[in-house]
Amino acid sequence: MKDSIFNSLMGRVSKGDLSAIIPVYEEYYKKLQIVAIRILKNKAAAEDAASQAIIDLIEDAKNGKVNKIKYVSGYLCTRCKNIALKIKERNKIFVGFDETDEINTPDLIESIIGNADLTQAIVDLKDIEKEIGLLFYVYGYKIREVAMELNMPEGTVKWHISNIKKNISKNFT
Prior knowledge:
The protein is mainly α. It has two domains: 103 residues, RNA polymerase sigma factor, region 2, helix turn helix motif (Rna Polymerase Sigma Factor, Chain: A), CATH 1.10.1740; 59 residues, Winged helix-like DNA-binding domain superfamily/Winged helix DNA-binding domain (Arc Repressor Mutant, subunit A). The longest helix has 22 residues. The protein is globular and about 45 Å long.
């Protein structure tokens, strides 16, 4: 979703048109779940974090706190990540996650994506490629931003992104 479209939708939400949040929800909710599950390792808690990120976005829009956001995907994923970290810390101190509720990440990714082959292709990536893929495809970072975050040359990031595409696409040809 283009930043301008997102900001236009948030303007409608600020005026009370809650139907404007639907395209935002449809585009980003699954991404937010994936971000949260990587932190929480618990499907129900990840759904809570993703939902809370959307709810907070609505409240901020109503209060005029959402103005001209750039890099919408990164903004929402960072917001969800922070909520997930708070949930994790709160549950660690008070309740702790029930071991029976814990789901390994590949199973959860498959349940969100709905494709076992794609899930396996993601699981089979090298750790650095998973991290780059997460930053680039899920968080919406630009190549330059990924390079800065991981302290590596932009050319190396581009090479890894190329490998990610190649390794995932070979499972579907």
